[in-house]
């Protein structure tokens, strides 16, 4: 366990995440075995449930949509050097913003004008909710991790208060608003595909998936191909150096968190505008925390986050399917696996690095000694 | 406000505050040693499950306590392994522990007890009982002051189980350890300047693991309180944010034991008041929404952190992994 050895780039970017994911899966498989289930059978049902049918795939992508938004939110803040645990609260406020615009204008405006306004409302509410912890971090020195945790609780209490006391449908029993007008409905994927003449089963999947993918591309372009993104990453990697180069770190903190909150706020387009058509409690359902897992696993890169979100979407959908098929299995197994993934891919990401590095070096030596002999197997092939 | 009301208010303040106090002391010990603990919630939840499961399986209070403390110490060590030994991100590790505990407890509970994630109810023999159940009646018998002392002292202060009093004693113990022992001095030093501690020949890693072990024991007590005293069984996600409220109380108390205790009591009091304020109109203010009172602990903590009440004094080396220079 001597000095930490640098891994080659391909190993750091591809091999390590795959290995860590494998360890997390193995840990979960041990628990599955321990409670008397067959991990193979569970896995087979899970994969079939998540990808085997058009309907299953739609649900997988529907879950993934929210995770992409929150995952991107966590990543943007991370590149600015901040840990945003508040995506859950920002998404709650985003849904509130989306919902308020819909309640106010859904009878008056046509969909092509209303839907962008709802998106804007959600993004602005999410942004504002993140801006307060950002301001406190930048100008008052309070730590953003703690304030965003507090703001998660404040967001959920605020939503309960508003729904119970002001926004609840008069005379209704459930704590939810009256349904929005039809103009506030974001088309489902089956509706969108039907316009193109493609038949697709009905599911909660809606065209906010495209919005999420667009956001991923946008985040990539912003962070790595724009000056604003460069400034943000500069502050994230070295505040002092950035300040010396004439970048104001305080402004970047506000910008990073504001963007982060806006991205999280877009969850409302999927859940409120796309699926529920009314404002209700708990529509975020932990997506803010799964977003942390997706960002951790996707190495805070938009491409990785989209991949990780699809994986988590598959786990949620497949997990639901397994809980129908296999007695004694519950979706909490998926939550547990998510915990293992954050643990092994995040907190313990480099625990195995010294061993991996040693194995790679060993293969390197062997390929050098056997240079002009027969070709030597590459390490990827053994771990793939 | 009559005496009965005051007594009930004091009693429920203490009841709500007890797990907060235990968790806040747990968080305080590790954070003063320089390790961030977002995972209080998860450790408490896991301990609650361990207490519920072992209590149901063995029917013994002491075994339930032992398993609860053991389970959360293991999670503390996991946190230590990831963050102290391998210098992983302390916040990520805490988040992982919370998510893991939320899932794993329900999975195990379903597999072992088949009751929708709950554990079977514990009998009165396993649950913790009030230490002096007759105190209120006895005190009421005192002439002149009995009508006041009975409900207020008897019901309010003396109607509790042993863990309530233990939690208060532990605050004193934590204070004494931190400020009056060599171990405490080193613990505080390692949270402020680990290099200095290392230069003095004391193990930084050893001290942080010691703090984590104590942290696990205290979280274990907090979790078992929920199962052995508050309700009679484990239920999924039964901690319901208490770990985070304890974290808030610890920060509100500026990482010091006695102010943290006061913060826990304040938050407990707010909770007790929130339930009783439902639908009551206060003179001059009108009806206060329950949610406003429930949000107050978090709001106060944010305001304190922003430096509007006093000056927050977080340990200087908090969240910084220690890398020994070679």
Q: What do the pLDDT scores of chain B average to?
A: 89
Low-confidence stretches of chain A: 375-384
Radius of gyration of chain A: 23 Å
What is the C-level CATH assignment of chain B? Mainly Alpha
Level-2 CATH architecture of chain B: Orthogonal Bundle
**Helix content class of chain A:** over 70%
User: Greatest contact pair?
Assistant: A-B, 49 and 50 residues
Report the major sheet of chain B: 2 strands, antiparallel
Distance between the termini of chain A: 25 Å
Question: Which secondary-structure class do the elements of chain A indicate?
Answer: mainly alpha
Q: Number of domains in the coordinates of chain B?
A: 1
Alpha-carbon distance between the two ends of chain B? 66 Å
Strand order of the largest sheet of chain B: 1-2
Please describe what this structure looks like.
The complex is a heterodimer of chains A (384) and B (326). Chain A is mainly α and 384 residues long. Chain A has a domain at 65-303. Helix content of chain A is 73%, strand content 0%. Chain A contains 17 helices and no strands. The two termini of chain A are 25 Å apart. Residues 375-384 of chain A have low confidence and may be disordered. In chain B, helix 2 (40-58) crosses helix 10. Chain B has 326 residues and is mainly alpha-helical. Chain B has a two-stranded antiparallel sheet with strand order 1-2. The mean pLDDT of chain B is 89. Helices cover 69% and strands 1% of the residues of chain B. Chain B has a single domain (3-305), classed as Orthogonal Bundle (ABC transporter involved in vitamin B12 uptake, BtuC), CATH 1.10.3470. Chain B is globular, with a radius of gyration of 21 Å. Chain B has helices at 3-32, 40-58, 61-85, 90-113, 135-140, 146-155, 162-180, 182-192, 194-199, 204-230, 242-252, 257-276, 290-305, and strands at residues 281-282, 286-287. Classes of the chains: A mainly alpha (384), B mainly alpha (326).
């Amino acid at each position: 366990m001597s000095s930490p050895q640098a891994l080659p780039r391909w190993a750091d970017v591809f091999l390590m995440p795959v290995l860590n994911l494998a360890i997390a899966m193995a840990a979960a498989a041990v628990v599955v075995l321990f409670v008397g289930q067959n991990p193979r059978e569970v896995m087979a049902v899970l994969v079939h449930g998540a990808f085997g049918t058009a309907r299953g795939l739609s649900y997988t992508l529907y879950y993934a949509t929210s995770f992409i938004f929150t995952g991107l939110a966590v990543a943007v803040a991370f590149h600015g050097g901040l840990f945003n645990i508040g995506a859950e609260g920002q998404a709650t406020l985003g849904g509130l913003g989306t919902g308020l615009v819909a309640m106010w204008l859904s009878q008056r405006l046509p969909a092509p004008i209303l839907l962008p306004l709802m998106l804007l409302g959600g993004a602005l509410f999410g942004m504002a909710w993140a801006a307060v912890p950002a301001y406190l971090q930048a100008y008052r020195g309070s730590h953003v991790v703690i304030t965003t945790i507090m703001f998660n609780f404040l967001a959920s209490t605020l939503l309960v208060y508003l729904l119970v006391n002001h926004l609840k449908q008069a005379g209704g029993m459930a704590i939810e608003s009256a349904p929005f007008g039809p103009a506030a409905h974001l088309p489902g994927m089956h509706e969108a595909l039907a316009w193109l003449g493609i038949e697709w089963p009905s599911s909660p999947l809606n065209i906010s998936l495209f919005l999420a993918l667009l956001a991923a591309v946008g985040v990539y372009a912003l962070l790595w191909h724009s000056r604003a993104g460069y400034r943000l990453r500069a502050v994230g990697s070295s505040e002092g150096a950035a300040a010396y180069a004439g970048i104001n770190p305080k402004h970047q903190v506000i910008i990073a968190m504001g963007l982060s909150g806006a991205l999280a706020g877009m969850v409302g387009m999927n859940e409120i505008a796309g699926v529920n058509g009314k404002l209700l409690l708990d529509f975020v359902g932990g997506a803010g925390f799964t977003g942390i897992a997706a960002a951790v696993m996707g190495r805070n890169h938009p491409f990785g986050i989209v991949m990780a979100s699809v994986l988590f979407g598959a786990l949620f959908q497949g997990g639901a399917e397994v809980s129908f098929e296999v007695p004694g299995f519950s979706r909490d197994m998926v939550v547990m696996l998510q915990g293992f993934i954050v643990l092994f891919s995040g907190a313990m990401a480099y625990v195995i690095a010294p061993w991996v590095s040693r194995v790679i070096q060993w293969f390197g030596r062997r390929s050098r000694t056997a240079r002009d002999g027969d070709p030597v197997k590459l390490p990827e092939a053994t771990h793939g | 406000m009559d005496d009965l009301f005051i007594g009930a208010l004091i009693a429920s303040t203490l009841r709500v505050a007890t797990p907060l106090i235990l968790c806040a002391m747990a968080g305080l010990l590790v954070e003063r040693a320089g390790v961030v603990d977002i995972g209080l919630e998860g450790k408490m939840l896991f301990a609650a499950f361990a207490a519920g499961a072992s209590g149901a399986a063995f029917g013994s209070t002491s075994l339930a306590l032992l398993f609860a403390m053991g389970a959360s110490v293991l999670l503390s060590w996991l946190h230590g392994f990831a963050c102290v030994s391998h210098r992983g991100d302390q916040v990520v590790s805490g988040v992982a522990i919370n998510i893991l505990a939320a899932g794993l407890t329900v999975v195990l509970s379903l597999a072992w007890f088949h009751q929708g994630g709950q554990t079977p109810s514990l009998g009165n023999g396993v649950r913790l009982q009030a230490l002096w159940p007759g105190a209120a009646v006895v005190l009421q018998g005192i002439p002149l002051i009995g009508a006041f002392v009975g409900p207020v002292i008897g019901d309010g202060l003396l109607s509790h189980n042993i863990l309530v009093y233990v939690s208060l004693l532990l605050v004193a113990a934590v204070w004494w350890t931190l400020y009056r022992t060599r171990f405490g001095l080193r613990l505080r030093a390692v949270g402020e300047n680990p290099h200095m501690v290392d230069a003095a020949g004391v193990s930084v890693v050893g001290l942080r693991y010691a703090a984590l072990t104590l942290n696990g024991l205290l979280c274990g007590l907090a979790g078992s309180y929920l199962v052995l005293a508050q309700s009679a069984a484990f239920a999924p996600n039964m901690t319901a944010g208490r770990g985070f409220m304890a974290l808030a109380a610890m920060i509100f108390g500026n990482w010091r034991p006695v102010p943290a205790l006061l913060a826990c009591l304040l938050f407990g009091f707010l909770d007790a008041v929130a339930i009783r304020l439902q639908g009551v109109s206060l003179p001059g203010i009108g009806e206060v929404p329950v949610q406003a009172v429930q949000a107050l602990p978090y709001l106060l903590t944010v305001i304190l952190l922003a430096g509007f009440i006093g000056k927050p004094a977080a340990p200087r080396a908090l969240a910084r992994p220690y890398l020994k220079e070679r």
